[in-house]
Specification:
The chain is of the alpha+beta class. It has one domain: 2,3-Dihydroxybiphenyl 1,2-Dioxygenase, domain 1. Helices cover 16% and strands 36% of the residues. Strand 3 and strand 4 form a beta hairpin.
Length: 310
């Protein structure tokens, strides 16, 4: 069994409008934009990162905003809900804030003993704010969100699958333990994790497969401390029969990828070197940062990217 995984590192989704995406995460949800770079495979498209003050693993939501991208179709074989941790008693203020900023389809319910507020992002993204009374992570308090309400980071994510058995076995191999089941949803938890340490598997045997597009999660990444731990994880996965990519340098972390039995793309990312490798903490997310290979084309790339604010 793998012991190096500590919970989520980041979740990466797609959007249809970069400005709208930036406004939602920084103004509406009050997160900090910790990096403004480009899609390493398509440099004419931003890669935007939002999180706490320094982009701590387990807090970072990232986006590829492809202009005018068709909206995705929810279904199985995807991450259907990204879950953020907020303080106990904060949902009423969040509901009021979100409604005032035009959010619709707001729904409060209780799952696994915790109250949550379900909402949709600008592209129909599935989110939930979950009250977590014992989350001691320090939040970023931006855009008028008080410390008593601010997002602490992820609590976890929910995967929608036709059959959860094979993915449940994979999670067990990755160090997750089965916690409890409510209806057709089973929760798995990393003991002693980083706070972003739950994965819910939702069984939907009759549902259609998802079609990726704006609002869809592209991949979900799990955190390991360093490259040595990542190589142990890669070997363990390959020894078990998974097809895992070579290690890829993403400038702010190293990454490996593999496809799960249910069709979801998993990544394992290192906590090192972090988002301050090319910007000081006070100015994270301010300037456009490019991979070295794209620096000779900076002027052309910048001309393709819309300003994120006026």
């Amino acid at each position: 069994m793998i012991k190096e995984i500590k919970g989520l590192h980041h979740v990466t989704s797609m959007a249809a409008d970069a400005r709208q995406n930036n406004k939602f995460f920084t103004d509406t949800l009050g997160l900090r934009r910790v990096k403004k770079t480009v899609n390493f495979d398509e440099p004419g498209v931003y890669h935007l990162y939002y999180g706490d003050e320094v982009g701590t693993p387990g807090t970072v939501m990232t986006y590829f905003p492809f202009a005018h991208m068709m909206r995705g179709r929810p279904g199985v074989g995807e991450v259907g809900e990204t879950q953020f941790s907020v303080p106990k008693g904060s949902l009423a203020s969040w509901k009021e804030r979100l409604a005032a900023q035009g959010a619709t389809d707001l729904e409060v319910d209780t799952t696994f003993g915790s109250d949550r507020l379900r909402l949709q992002g600008p592209d129909g993204d599935g989110f939930a704010l979950i009250e977590t009374p014992d989350d001691t992570r320090t939040p970023w308090t931006g855009a008028g969100v008080s410390e008593n309400a601010a997002i602490r980071g992820f609590s976890g994510a929910r995967l929608r699958l036709h059959d959860i058995a094979a993915t449940a076995e994979l999670l067990g191999f990755m160090g997750y333990e089965r916690a409890e089941t409510e209806g057709n949803v089973t929760r798995y938890v990393i003991p002693g994790g980083n706070g972003a340490d739950t994965i819910d598997l939702e069984a939907l045997p009759q549902a259609a497969f998802a079609r990726q597009g704006a609002g869809s999660v592209h991949h979900i990444a799990f955190a390991v401390e360093d490259r040595a731990a990542q190589l142990k994880v890669r070997k363990a996965l390959m020894d078990t029969g998974y097809q895992v990519t070579p290690v890829i340098d993403r400038d702010y972390f190293w990454a490996i990828y593999f496809r799960t039995p249910g069709g979801v793309l998993f990544e394992v990312a290192t906590n090192e070197p972090g988002f301050d490798r090319d910007e000081d903490t006070a100015h994270l997310g301010t300037d456009l940062k490019l991979p070295t290979r794209y620096e000779p084309y900076r002027e052309k790339i910048e001309a393709q990217l819309v300003p994120l604010t006026d």
